[in-house]
Design brief:
By secondary structure, this protein is of the alpha+beta class. Helix content is about 25%, strand content about 30%. The protein folds into two domains: about 5-40, no CATH class; about 45-150, Macrophage Migration Inhibitory Factor.
Length: about 160
């Protein structure tokens, strides 16, 4: 009988720097071989909008709220969330220059359809409240990155 190894979804492992990270292990009846970190979500949310913000304090508050919202929606500590806001961009949508937004949501790992649906709803509500942009003038692009294509702290998440 042939025994196939399987990947355990989440096992804690302390790296050489003492930080505990989740790692996947190929398991067989006799051996455990680490095969790399499990990165469920490492989100980046970037909002480009033609709406303007009155002053820098409001910009900082908006970024802070966006960071908290993103962390909540992804179930991640804010430590792993990055947000970016590009206000007052020159943009058109449907042939007009009325206020609009383009949002990029990038993530290491997969985003299920239920998550992207919820993210779309929550981000549109947030943008409506903060910038007075109607949902019908917002595009959101969701993209998934592989760990080896995302760098951080002099390395990658591979």
């Amino acid at each position: 009988m042939r025994v196939m190894p399987f990947v355990a979804p989440r096992l804690a492992h302390a790296d050489s720097d003492g930080a505990e990270r989740n790692r996947a292990f190929a398991l067989s009846p006799l051996i455990r071989i680490p095969i790399g970190p499990i990165i469920k979500y490492m989100p980046l949310v970037r909002i480009t909008t033609s709406a303007s913000i009155a002053h820098d304090k409001k910009l900082d508050e908006t970024l802070s709220k966006l960071s908290q919202l993103t962390a909540t929606l992804f179930g991640k500590p804010e430590r792993w969330v990055m947000t970016c806001l590009d206000p007052a961009a020159k943009m058109t949508f449907s042939g007009t220059t009325e206020a609009c937004c383009y949002v990029e949501v990038k993530n290491i790992g997969t985003m299920a359809g239920e998550l992207t649906e919820q993210l779309s709803q929550e981000l549109c509500q947030f943008i409506g409240r903060e910038f007075n942009v109607p949902n019908s003038r917002i595009y959101i692009e969701f993209s998934e990155a592989k760990g080896h294509l995302w760098g951080w702290d002099g390395s990658t998440f591979a």
